[in-house]
Every structure is written in structure tokens, then in C-alpha cells.
Amino acid sequence: MERDTVSPDTPLLTLNANDSNRNIDLEIKGERDIKVNISGSTQSVDRTNIDG
Fold it and tell me: Residue 33: which domain range?
């Protein structure tokens, strides 16, 4: 059986959720390559390459 190959630049998971007050973007490419952006009417947070 032939296996599909995935480019290292292809995210394992992407998520976008929003409502009238907030927007959340999450992208996971690997164990140590995680990008999160949370923005809203009162605050904005952007984190890249979170260790944890």
C-alpha cells in the first residue's frame, strides 16, 4: 500500500473560531510549532512556538 506524504509546512491541525466579540486562530504543525492568535474587543494575544 502506498502512503501519502505530507509537506513539513502542512499544518497537522488548524482551527478558527469566532463570534461577535472574539476571534481565535490555532495552527499546529508539530510538537513545538504551535501558533495561537486570540483577539477580541478588549485584548489581543499572539503566541508562537509555545513550549510546554
Answer: 1-52
Residue 40 has a CB neighbour count (10 Å cut-off) of 14
Q: How many domains does the chain have?
A: 1
Give all strands (DSSP E) within 1-52, no chain letters: 13-18, 22-30, 33-40, 44-48
Torsion of CA 28, 13, 46, 24, to 10 degrees: -160
* pLDDT tens digits, 10-36: 888 999 999 888 888 999 888 788 888
Contact 12, 28 (CB under 8 A): yes
pTM: 0.58
Q: Would you say 32 and 45 are in contact if contact means Cβ atoms under 8 Å apart?
A: no
